[in-house]
Write a structure and sequence with these properties.
The chain has 218 residues and is mainly α. The protein has a domain of 78 residues: Tetratricopeptide repeat domain (Serine Threonine Protein Phosphatase 5, Tetratricopeptide repeat, Alpha Horseshoe), CATH 1.25.40.10. Helix content is 75%, strand content 0%. The protein contains eleven helices and no strands. The longest helix is centred in the last third of the chain and has 31 residues. It is elongated, with a radius of gyration of 27 Å.
């Protein structure tokens, strides 16, 4: 085979390969030929359209291709927001935490902290026996509510904090009732007393006292 024919065949094969696998070049070319402003705008538009996966992809490409972009802090935050809206709460929490660690004095830090707490809060199930998620939400809201730099987000955290406390009290009432039905009166007594000691004046005091009277001599 002549060198000319070999080069021709090789060229054809390469062109066929590229044509058959556009992903090998299209996305990379687009990113390289796009300004960071264009990628940022693209990500924002996809977010507004609720295409959160697409928005994450655009912002991730922007972050990788243009690490010195002046809006990089906002890019980190928008990735976290898109993950939150997409229901990927654990991933969103990690991204918000990364943002807070990298940019601790950024003006959006209080909102990021609120979103971390909200990501825990939105995972709470009504009668789930595991209270760890509620406790995580409560701890996060409490920390923000006590943050002197929390601003409006600290006030919103206070509102959610009360809801978390009520949910924990409700869980303890449910536990006490369950333990009574099982004949585990000592455990029921502990749960009912916890409502009175740790979550007083939240609307469950009467019910807790009634449960304690019910098992007083048991």
């Amino acid at each position: 085979m002549s060198k000319t024919k070999f080069r021709t065949i090789a060229t054809v094969l390469i062109l066929l390969l590229i044509a058959g696998c556009p992903s090998m070049w299209t996305s990379e070319t687009v990113v390289k030929n796009s300004t960071p402003e264009e990628l940022y705008k693209e990500g924002e538009e996809l977010f507004k359209k609720k295409d959160y996966s697409g928005a994450i992809n655009s912002f991730e490409q922007l972050k990788s291709a243009h690490p010195q972009f002046e809006k990089t802090p906002e890019v980190y935050l928008k990735i976290a927001d898109a993950m939150f809206e997409n229901g990927a709460y654990d991933k969103a929490i990690m991204r918000y935490q990364t943002f807070v660690e990298l940019y601790p004095i950024h003006k959006e830090v209080p909102r990021a902290k609120y979103q971390i707490a909200l990501a825990y809060f939105d995972q709470i199930k009504n009668m789930d026996r595991d209270t760890s998620i509620i406790q995580a939400a409560l701890d996060s809201f409490k920390a923000l509510s006590q943050d002197p730099n929390g601003g409006e987000w600290a006030k919103k955290a206070e509102e959610k904090l009360r809801i978390c406390r009520k949910k924990l009290a409700e869980k303890e009432i449910y536990k006490a009732q369950t333990y009574i039905s099982m004949g585990r009166y000592a455990a029921a007594r502990v749960a009912a007393k916890r409502v009175l000691d740790e979550f007083p004046k939240l609307g469950f005091d009467t019910e807790a006292n009634d449960l304690l009277k019910k098992i007083k001599d048991k």
